Amino acid sequence: MRKADGLFKLIGLCLLAGVLVAGMLFPVVGAAGVMSNQASETVEKTSSDLADIPPPLVTTVTDSTGKPIATLYDQYRLPINENQINEAMKWALVSVEDKRFYEHHGVDWQGTLRAAVSNSTGADTQGASTLTQQYVKNYLINVVYRGDQVGQKKAQEQSIARKLKEARIAIQLETKLTKQQILAGYLNIVEFSRQIYGIGAAAHAYFNTTPEKLTVPQAALLAGLVNNPINNDPWKHADKATARRNLVLDRMVENKKLAKADAERFKGEPLGVVPDFPAKPPANCIGAGPEAGFFCQYVEDYLLKSGMTKDQLYTGGYTIKSTLDERANHEAKVSAEAQVKKTQPYVANTLSLVKPGKNRHEVVALASNRDYGQDQDAGQTTYALPTGVYNTGGAGSTYKIFTSAAAMEKGVAGIFSPVQVPDTYVSHVFTGGGNSCPPTGPPLRSRWYCVGNAGDYSRIAQGATLQTALATSPNTAFVELEDRLGSTAPGIDMAKRLGMRDTMASNAGGGTVDPKAESENKRLSQAELYGPRGNNPGYGAFTLGFSPLSGLELGNVAATILSGGVWCPPTPIAAVTDRNGAPVPVKEAACEQAVPEALANTLAVGMSKDDQPGGTSAGAASAVGWNRPMIGKTGTTQGNVSATFVGGTPQLAGAAMTFKFGGGQGGICDAGPGNVRVCGSGNIFGGKAPARTWFGAMKNIMDASQPVLPLPQPDPQYMGGGPR
C-alpha cells in the first residue's frame, strides 16, 4: 500500500507540474474555448480590483487650526513609498519570505516544485508563494474582500485553481511594476497584528520609529511577523517572536546579507518593542480625549447624516478639518465641570457654543462635566450629551422664546406690549389640569388648563411688557399668549424654524403610540405629540418646555436670532480632503431666512434684559463681572429635574443644560458650584448652574479675543402688537 501511495503521489505531482506550467504559459501563448476565456476574464477582473480598490487608510480629524485631535480607522496603516524602506527591512523580508525575489518574474518555479515535492511526501507544508504572489493574496484579503469572510476564504483556499489565478496575476504585476514598487506595495498591505497594517504603521506601533530608521533586529522581528502575526505577537508570545526573529537573522546570513557574527550579537538583544502594547492611536473618537471627544463624535455623526458611510469615514484616509476652537472648548469644559463634578451620579451639565452668521453657523465648543470615554466609574461616557436629544427632562422656560416670536409674527404682541401676569391663569383653549389652580372658584368649562408661577411676581404685575416677562419668566404670561395664538401650532412651528429641528422630530423620552398604527408600534414625534391634532389645539405646557431636546440646537436658536433670523445647520466641518488632498464636498442643509430680520433683531432686544438687575440670570452674570450686551433666557422644568440657559453675543451664542442622566430619584438640588446633585426635592433653576456655566466660560472666551459689540436695533413694526 505504501508503494502504491507513493506512486499515486508521484503521478499527482507530475499532473500538478503540468497544470502549473500550462497555466503559466496561458497568458503568453493564448488559448481558445469558453473555460479559457472565463479564466482570463477572472484574472483581468481581479487585476482590475487590485488597481481600482485602494487600501483602507486612517482618517484624521483636526481642530480649526489643523492640529490633529483624533484618528478614525478600521486598519491602522501609514502608507510609505519605496524610498522610505531601508535596506535592513528589504533584505530581512526577502531573505525569509522569497530569497529569489530579484531573480524570478512573479513565480518561483524552483520553489514551487520543491514545495510540491515536500507536500506530496508528507513533509512540512510549504507554500512556495513569492512576495509578488503574497502581495496579491494579501491585497485580496485585506483590501478587496475586507469584511467579506466568503471572499477572504476563497483568497486563501488551498486549491490549484486559486494558486494558478494568483500566479498569473503575479506575472502580470511583474510586467507593470518594478521590484521595488512590488516590495513597497506588499509592505503597505500586509498585516502585523492588532489592526496594524503596513510597515509604516508597524514601525511606529512596535518601535515608535519610521521604516527608514529600523535597525537590523527590528527589521528581522517585523519580517518574521508577516508569516503568522497572531502567533508571533511579541507582547503575548515573546518567546515565539524571539525565535522567529532569530530565524530571520539566520536566513539573512544564508542569503549573504548579514555577517554571522552580527547575527549572533543581534540574537542576544531584547526584542525592544514599546512596553505593554503597540503605540498606536485609538481607532475612534476616544483618541480625541476627555475634552474634545464630544466634538469628534459630533463630526462623525454629522458626516454620517450628510450621506457618508461609516466604512468610508473609517477607511477613506480623509483629513477632516473641524471648526473646534480648542481654547473655547477647554473653557467650556472647565466651566461645566466647575458646576457639576464629573463623577456626580445622575447629573449631566453641558455647554454648546456656536458662531452666529448669515452663511454658516460654526460650532466651536461642545463640552460636558462628564469626560468622553468608556470608564463610567471615572465619570466618562460616550453618549453625545451636548448634541444629542438626551435631556429628556426638557428645556423649561427657554421655550417661551418661541411663544414670544410667534406672538410677534402674528401681531398678537410686540416686544414692548403689555402682558398679563396673574398668580394663576386658567386657559379654556388648552386641556390638562394643574395643581396650582385654586380649589374653589367659578365652574370650569370642559376644556381647561391651569398654570401658576414659580415665585412672587407681584412687583411686575402692573406695567409688565413682553420684554419684562422674558427677563423675569412668569409662566402665566406666556400661557395667556398661547391662548391668544389659539393653539400651540405657531410656537411649535417657530421652534423648528429657529433651530429645534432634530429635537422636534425626536421621540426621545417616549411619546404615545399612534392609535392608527398600533400594529407597527409607531411612536409620535414631539411635534406630532404636543402639537394640534384634530380638535385638540395642543398642550398648553409646550411653552414651559417639558419635552426632550438637544442642547446644541438650543444654542443654535440664539445663533439664529443673532444672525438676523437666518438659520444655518450647526456645522462642525471647516473642510474635508481625500487621501490625495482633493477637496470633498459635504452635503449640508442650506441656510434659511427662518424669520424676518426685523423680527429677529427686535426679539434680540426683547431678550437683552435677562442679565440685568431683576433678570433671572443677573446673579450669575454679576458673579463674573459680565458687562457686554447679550441676549439670554433661563428655563426650569416641573420638579426641577432639568434647567437650561440660552444666550449669546453678536460673536458667539450657546446653551448650557443641567439635567438628570442615567437614573436617580427626585429633582436636582443646587447648593452652589461643585455641589449640584440629585435630591428628594429639587431647587435648581436656569439662573443657577446652567447660567453660571454659560457666563463662566463666555466671560473668559470673549474677554480674551472679542471686542464689545452692540445688539441690533429693534424694528417699530415688532415693538407693539397689531396687524402685520
From TrEMBL:
<keyword id="KW-0378">Hydrolase</keyword>
<feature type="domain" description="Glycosyl transferase family 51">
    <location>
        <begin position="66"/>
        <end position="252"/>
    </location>
</feature>
<dbReference type="InterPro" id="IPR012338">
    <property type="entry name" value="Beta-lactam/transpept-like"/>
</dbReference>
<protein>
    <submittedName>
        <fullName>Transglycosylase domain-containing protein</fullName>
        <ecNumber>2.4.-.-</ecNumber>
    </submittedName>
</protein>
<dbReference type="InterPro" id="IPR001264">
    <property type="entry name" value="Glyco_trans_51"/>
</dbReference>
<keyword id="KW-0328">Glycosyltransferase</keyword>
<feature type="domain" description="Penicillin-binding protein transpeptidase">
    <location>
        <begin position="458"/>
        <end position="641"/>
    </location>
</feature>
<keyword id="KW-0121">Carboxypeptidase</keyword>
<dbReference type="InterPro" id="IPR050396">
    <property type="entry name" value="Glycosyltr_51/Transpeptidase"/>
</dbReference>
<dbReference type="InterPro" id="IPR023346">
    <property type="entry name" value="Lysozyme-like_dom_sf"/>
</dbReference>
<keyword id="KW-0511">Multifunctional enzyme</keyword>
<dbReference type="InterPro" id="IPR001460">
    <property type="entry name" value="PCN-bd_Tpept"/>
</dbReference>
<keyword id="KW-0808">Transferase</keyword>
<dbReference type="Pfam" id="PF00905">
    <property type="entry name" value="Transpeptidase"/>
</dbReference>
<dbReference type="GO" id="GO:0016757">
    <property type="term" value="F:glycosyltransferase activity"/>
</dbReference>
<keyword id="KW-0645">Protease</keyword>
<dbReference type="InterPro" id="IPR036950">
    <property type="entry name" value="PBP_transglycosylase"/>
</dbReference>
<dbReference type="Pfam" id="PF00912">
    <property type="entry name" value="Transgly"/>
</dbReference>
